[in-house]
Amino acid sequence: MTRLILATRNNGKIVELRSILADAGLPHELVGADAYPEIPDVRETGVTFAENALLKAHALADATGLPAVADDSGLCVDVLGGAPGIFSARWAGRHGDDKANLDLLLAQLGDIDEDRHRGAHFACAAALALPDGTERVVEGQLRGVLRHAPAGTGGFGYDPILQVEGDTRTCAELTSAEKNAISHRGKAFRALVPVVRELLG
After folding, report:
1. Helix, coil or strand: residue 201
2. Among residues 71, 72, 113, 115, which one is catalytic?
3. Given its phi and psi angles, is residue 136 left (phi above 0), alpha (psi -120 to 50 degrees) or beta?
4. Residue 112 burial (10 A CB sphere; 0-12, 13-18, 19+)
5. Which of 122, 194, 188 is nearest to 155 (CA)?
6. pLDDT tens, per residue, the chain with 201 residues
């Protein structure tokens, strides 16, 4: 059984990808970065989601000698030219301050009333890197419209303001199962399945 390492300390992501691999009949053992605590977190210095995902995947593959998966994701707002994009987690200046990020974005869009001008999507790039330098990147998106005020208590980040395309609810109003079925990360992870099968058997 091939061990596969996912560049995250987020157990939810590990469980999600482990489930997707199992559903596809892939027998690989998936572990998170916590299995290798001596390896420091990688700085995300890329200018695209794909570059950041590859940076993290290659760093782990090089350090462990194992195939590694990493992802990077964020919110891309149409009228902001795709911003906050790779800066989503630190849009208000401090990494991971969800409320400040959300409040700043809503303030920036305050004068844009019509829903047709408030289009946005969550984007995710997922990368697989092998110790020999082989790499692949796949992507997933979840489109929607930005609400004027947060709604829902589930999820995190910008989930409370993105109303899912074709639905009346925000991502934060979906159940975990509903969100995982359509999420940008779920789509990217599922797109990795044939890549894992091709490169790892």
Report:
1. coil
2. 72
3. beta
4. middle
5. 122
6. 689 999 998 888 898 899 999 999 998 999 999 999 999 989 999 999 999 999 999 999 999 999 999 999 999 999 999 999 999 999 999 888 999 999 999 999 999 988 889 999 999 999 999 999 999 999 999 999 999 999 999 888 999 999 999 999 999 999 988 998 999 999 999 999 999 999 997
Return d(Cα 27, Cα 149) in angstroms, integer. 43
Mention every residue, 6+ apart, whose C-beta is less than 8 A from residue 176.
154
- Residues 71 and 125 sit within 8 Å (Cβ to Cβ): yes
Are the CB atoms for 149 and 109 separated by under 8 Å?
A: no
In the chain the first and final C-alpha atoms are separated, in Å, by: 10
Catalytic, 72? Answer yes
Dihedral angle computed from the Cα positions of residues 75, 120, 126 and 49, in that order, rounded to the nearest 10 degrees: -60
Q: Where are the beta strands (DSSP E) in 61-192?
A: 68-77, 119-129, 135-146, 162-164
Say if residues 175 and 154 touch (Cβ distance below 8 Å): yes
Q: What is the pTM of this model?
A: 0.93
Give the distance from CA 16 to its chain's centroid: 12
Kindly give the pairing relationship between strand 162-164 and strand 119-129.
unpaired
54 touches 129 (CB < 8 A): yes
